[in-house]
User: Which sequence fits this backbone?
């Protein structure tokens, strides 16, 4: 199984926010810059994460995002089910398949996918960042804050994401 880029970005955003210092909001530009991701992709993912209530997005000049839940309560399998769209591994409906009546492949793949999500449910967001990964995120976040004047930290707000997040 291969995760979509959307899920990859979503996990990175959540991990980053789980370890970012909460005294200042994190901008979409900071996240996209830290991971070298397209700004528009991060905006869309942030909108989806906010819609789920996992992050809080604040509008305006001093806007940004922050984690809205405790990292130890968010199961990675649950996150992936939402971000991946709970799709099947194989789209049998979109194909004209002569094996459809006798085929067990679809069910086998469904069970495999469920096993994958169950395995991911064994991990929380907190566990993903409770290591060297978390320390690296803290370093990146601090370095970003030190490299830009405080008044510029919120220069890129979530105005582009307003429709996704709030509308």
Assistant:
């Amino acid at each position: 199984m291969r995760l979509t880029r959307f899920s990859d970005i979503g996990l990175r955003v959540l991990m980053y926010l789980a370890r970012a210092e909460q005294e200042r909001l994190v901008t979409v530009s900071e996240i996209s810059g830290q991971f070298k991701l397209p700004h528009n992709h991060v905006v869309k993912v942030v909108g989806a994460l906010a819609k789920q209530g996992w992050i809080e997005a604040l509008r305006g000049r001093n806007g940004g995002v922050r984690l809205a839940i405790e990292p130890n309560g968010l199961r990675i399998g649950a996150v992936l089910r939402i971000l991946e769209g709970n799709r099947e591994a194989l789209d049998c409906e979109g194909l004209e398949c002569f094996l459809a009546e006798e085929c067990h492949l679809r069910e086998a793949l469904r069970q495999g996918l469920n096993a994958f999500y169950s395995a991911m449910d064994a991990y929380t967001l907190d566990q993903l960042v409770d290591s060297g990964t978390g320390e690296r995120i803290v370093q990146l976040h601090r370095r970003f804050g030190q490299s830009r004047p405080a008044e510029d930290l919120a220069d890129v707000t979530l105005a582009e994401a307003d429709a996704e997040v709030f509308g």
In short: Strands lie at 55-58, 64-67. Residues 54 and 109 are 29 Å apart (CA to CA).
